[in-house]
Write a structure and sequence with these properties.
- Helices cover 37% and strands 17% of the residues.
- It is α+β, with helices and mostly antiparallel strands and 78 residues long.
- The longest helix is centred in the N-terminal third of the chain and has 10 residues, at 7-16.
- The radius of gyration is 12 Å and the shape is globular.
């Protein structure tokens, strides 16, 4: 099953992970509780724009999720 994420969803997840936008706001970073720096780049096309499946998968892994499903479940509990 595929999972659909909007740019707004990704920003919401980043905020929940205490990430901060850097520079021009496209790069989000945080040092996780495990000491690992996590980052992702979000080329937003508006909060309602839908991410491509491959992009969502890449972002999920960059944020420390094992799968897009794990990221989806995290989002649903926010």
């Amino acid at each position: 099953m595929g999972y659909t994420f909007t740019f707004g969803d990704i920003q919401k997840i980043c905020r929940a992970l205490n990430m901060q936008p850097k520079g021009n706001g496209r790069y989000w970073t945080v040092i996780g509780p495990d000491g690992v720096v996590r980052w992702t780049k979000i080329d937003s096309h508006g909060p309602g724009g839908v991410l491509a499946t491959g992009t969502a998968s890449r972002i999920a892994h960059q944020l420390g999720f094992s799968t897009p499903r794990e990221m989806y479940l995290f989002l649903k509990h926010l």
